[in-house]
Amino acid sequence: MDQILDWDKELFLYLNRLSIGNWDHFWLFVTKIENWIPLYILFFFLFWKKLPRKKALLATLFTFILMGLTLGLTNLVKNSVARIRPSNEPDFNGLVKVLQENPDFSFFSGHSAVSFAVSVFVILILKSHTKWIWGILIWPFLFALSRIFVGVHYPSDLLVGAIIGILLAVISRKLLRSII
Prior knowledge:
Strand content: under 5%
Domain Phosphatidic acid phosphatase type 2/haloperoxidase: 59-173
Protein name: Phosphatase PAP2 family protein
CATH topology: Vanadium-containing Chloroperoxidase, domain 1
Order of helices and strands: HHHHHHH
Keywords: Membrane, Transmembrane, Transmembrane helix
Transmembrane segments: 26-48, 57-77, 105-126, 133-152, 158-176
Number of helices: 7
């Protein structure tokens, strides 16, 4: 396990250093949750445009429940594991480009978990109604990647967050299907 954590730190440092100064504003924009509100509005608009009313209402409700459940699980795990963020790691002092400060813990990424959970859930709901819906996967990949470039997450934080988010989305879709 120590070897995996060492590789994770080395990969983080490598990727974090790839961020060139001209991109700092872009990554800061991408990493802010409030900048993605229009995308969520689009998701709900598509639910109501493409689905029957009852299904649209349930899909909207399930999306909010999924977000809350994912955030709750993330915080529970973060506080249990208590992994220090790269930006707060004393061994990284002067080695990490830090664009954002976060005082809480790192493992696993809530940004990654929620964005993958919502995106995959929306895809599973709308894939038979909207051909281009798979394109929304660009969002969680960029959103997660931004967390390395702002200096607050290791790659494993993002990978585990994505896996958790995808699993919760699939489970949520199955629950929704059983209700409908």
